[in-house]
Amino acid sequence: MDKPFRRRDLLGIRDLSASEITGILDTAENFREISTREVKKVPALRGKTIINLFFESSTRTRTSFEIAAKRLSADALNISVAASSLSKGETLLDTALNLDAMAPDCIVVRHSSAGVPHQLAKVSRAAIVNAGDGANEHPTQALLDAMTIREHKGKIDGLEVAIIGDILHSRVARSNIHLLTKLGAKVRVAGPGTLVPSAFQYLVEAGLTVCDHVEDAIRGADVVMILRIQRERQDSAYFPTLREYSIHYGLTDARLDLAKKDAIVLHPGPMNRGIEIASDVADSSRSLILDQVKYGVAVRMAVLYLATGGGTQAGTD
Amino acid sequence: MKLLIANGHLIDPNAAENTGMSVLIEDGRVKEWIRPGQDAPSDCEIFDASGLLVAPGFIDMHVHLREPGQEHKETIASGCAAAVAGGWTSVCPMPNTIPVNDNAAITRYMIEQAERAGLANVFPIGAITKSSDGSELAEMGEMKAAGAVAVSDDGRPVPNAGIVRRAMQYARDFDLPVIDHCEDKSLSSGGVMHEGKVSLLLGLKGMPALAEEIDAVRDILLAKDTGAHIHLAHVSTAGAVEAVRRAKNAGINVTCEVTPHHFTLTDKAVEGYDTNTKMSPPLRSEEHREAIIDGIKDGTIDAVATDHAPHHADEKALEYDRAPFGITGLETAVGLAFSELVHKGVIDLVRLVEMCSANPAKILRLDGRGTLAPGSHADLTIIDPELVWAYASADSRSRSRNTPFDGREFRGAAVGTIVAGRVVFRR
Predict the structure, then answer these.
(1) I want to staple A105 with a disulfide (CB 3.0 to 4.6 A). Which of A48, A91, B167, B280 is the partner?
(2) Which of A15, A56, A91 is the best substitution to test chain B (most B C-beta atoms within 10 A)?
(3) Which pTM does this prediction carry?
C-alpha cells in the first residue's frame, strides 16, 4: 500500500543502505541531548499518534519506544496482545485493519512470528516500525548497538566484532550482522554448532565469518556482543545444560582477554548472569550494557521521527 | 450422442500421424480416429479443434477436495469445477478429509458426490492407516472395491517403518500403489519453509531437504524388500530425485510425481512472508528446482500432480508460521506446465501428455484412460498452446483463493475439457 507522503516503514536493517543507516544514527545523535534536559520534551511529533503493538512480552523495548514517543510529544499508547491474534479468533489482517482504521501515524510492532511487520506494512497506511519479529530482525536494537559502538570507538568501518551465542534464533544477531557489515565491520559469529549453522556465512555477501570456536571469534575483536541464551533451547536439545553452556560458550574474563585490550562488551539484555556472561565481565568498565539502554531512547526517537515524516521537512524544530 | 473433435493436433503416443486428425466420440467412448481427407459422419455435434492440441484427459493424481468435513474450503463439486476449468478430467482426492477416508463408505460417498456434480471423474485415494494415525491398517481391500485407486496417509506420513512395510505387503495383495508424502517429521517439525540461506535470512524455521530424502530412501528400500509399488508424492529435492533415478535403474517398482510450483518457484518467493508461498513440501532452493527439471527431462519423474490444497482466506491471513500449509493448483497447472516446461524446451508435447495423463493412468491402473485409442474413455483435454492469459484468483471456481500465482501470465491453456464424451468446460 502506498503510504501517505513521507511516512516510512522500518521493517529491517537488511532493506537499508549504509547511508540510510548513518542518517538514522546521525539523527539519533541530535536527539540524545533532549534526554539530558530538565524538561525532556520537544514538540517534534506533536499531534502524531503512535501505537505500540506488542504481541510478545517486553519491558525494555516497549518502555524505550514509549519514552521516545513521549519525549517527542507524540500521543503514544500501548497495546499488549496475547501471543497471537488467532487466540482471540481474529486474524492478523483484521487486527491490522482495525488499528489502521483509527488512523495512527505509526505502529510499532513486536511479534514472536517472523514477518509480521512486513505483513502489516502491506495493508496499513500507518508507518510500521519493527520492534522485533520472531527470529528475523530487531532493527532498533542493532541501531542502538551501532550508536554505542560509534560513541566508544569513533567509527564502525574496519572494526572486528564477535557475536557469540544462539545465532540461529536471534533477531538481534541478524540485524547486527546486516548493519555492521554494511558499515564496513568484520563480523565473526560463534556458539554451539546446533545454534550456529555454517550456512550462516552466506547470509550477507561479505564481511561475515562463522567460527568453529568461541575463542577464534573473540581473538583480536574490538567489540564482543553476547546474545541471551534461552532455557527452552535446552529443552529442545540444542545443548545439554546451561552449566555446560556457560563453561564452553560463556564470556569469562579469560575469554575476553583474547580480545583487544580496549575491547567493549555489549549484551541486548536481559542478561543471564553466570550463563552467557560472567557477572564480573557484565559489571566491568568494558561492559556498556547500560549505555546501550540509554542510546536506545535516542535511536527510537530518531526512528519514530523519520518514520512519521520528520527529517525531510526543512526548518521545523 | 456423437461428438466430433475436429481437425485438432492429436497428442497420443500411439498416434503416428497426428495433425488435422479428428476424434469421433460416441456413448462416452472414443469411437474412432478420422484422418484428414476421410469422411466424417454428418450426424454429430462438432468441436472445432483446428489449431488446438487434443490430448487424452489429464489426471491429477494428488488433490485435496476437503469434502467431507471442510466444505468452507472446497467441496467435491467446487473442486471438480476448478479441475475441469484447469483441463483435468480426473482428480484423485487424498484421504485427509474429516473424517478420514479410511473406509469404503467414505470412498463411495466421495464418488457419489462427484457423480452428482457431473464434472470431473473422482478416484479417491484411501488411507493407509485408520484415521491416518500411523498405527492400524485401514481396510484397503474394501476401499479398493468401492473405487479407491491407491492408499496414502499423505500429510501425516506413517513414521513407523515396520507399519509401512506391512502396509506395502498388504497393499500388494490388492494391486494398490502406496503413495507416500516423504517427510521425516523428527527433522522437519516446526519448520515452515525450506531450510537454507533464505530461511536463515528470513528468520523462519527450516524444513531440511534431508527430511524428504531420508524417507524417500527408506520407502525405496521397503519397496525393494516387499515388491510393492511405491509412489513418491510431490518430490521436491535433488536427493529424492536421485534416489528414484537409482531405484528405477535397479529395477525397483517406484514412481514419483512433481507439482507445478516445485518446478516453477524457489524459496526466494517466501521473501515478503506471503502465506500463499507456504506449502509442504516447501518451495526449495534453486539447485533443488534444477534437479527437479533434470528429473522431468530424463524421465525419472513420472507425473505432474498439483497437490491442490485449498484453504479459506481467513485461515491464510495469519502469521507466516501459523498459517496452514498448501496452495490451490488445479487452474494454474496447465499454464505453468506449458510456460515452464514445454515453451522453455524442457520436454516435448508427448512427454507432457505422458506426465499429465498416460503415466498417472498407468500408476493408478486406470484402464482405458490416459489414451485416446478407440474404445477408451472419452476423457479429453483440449489445449491452446499459444494462448496468453493471466490468472485471476478472484474468478476461481475453487472455493479458495490461496495461490501464489494470482495475476501471473501464462502461455498455454486448457480451452476445452471433455469428460465421458460431454463438454464440461469450454474457454
Answers:
(1) A48
(2) A91
(3) 0.94
DSSP A21-89: HHHHHHHHHHHHGGGGSSS----TTTT-EEEEEESS--SHHHHHHHHHHHHTT-EEEEEE--S-GGGGT
Per-residue pLDDT tens for A142-188? Answer: 999 999 999 999 999 999 999 999 999 999 999 999 999 999 999 99
**Interchain proximity B197–A202, CB inside 8 Å:** yes
Cell (9 digits) for A264: 567493549
Q: What is the CATH number of the domain that holds B9?
A: 2.30.40.10
**Parent domain of A42:** 18-136+295-307
ipTM of the complex: 0.92
**CB distance B320–A91 less than 8 Å?**
no
Residues in CB range of A185: below 8 A, 6 or more apart: A156, A157, A158, A159, A160, A161, A207
A8 found inside a domain? no
Q: How many residues does chain B have?
A: 427
Q: Is residue A4 part of a domain?
A: no
Coil, strand or helix: which one is B268? helix
In angstroms, the CA B205 to CA B189 distance is 9
Domain co-membership, A282 together with A145: yes
> Where residue A29 sits, what CATH number does that domain have?
3.40.50.1370
CA distance B138 to B213: 26
- Name residues whose C-beta falls within 8 Å of residue B230's C-beta, 6 or more positions apart in sequence: B168, B177, B178, B179, B180, B219, B220, B222, B223, B253, B254, B255
Out of B272, B314, B322, name the one closest to residue A113 (CB). Answer: B322
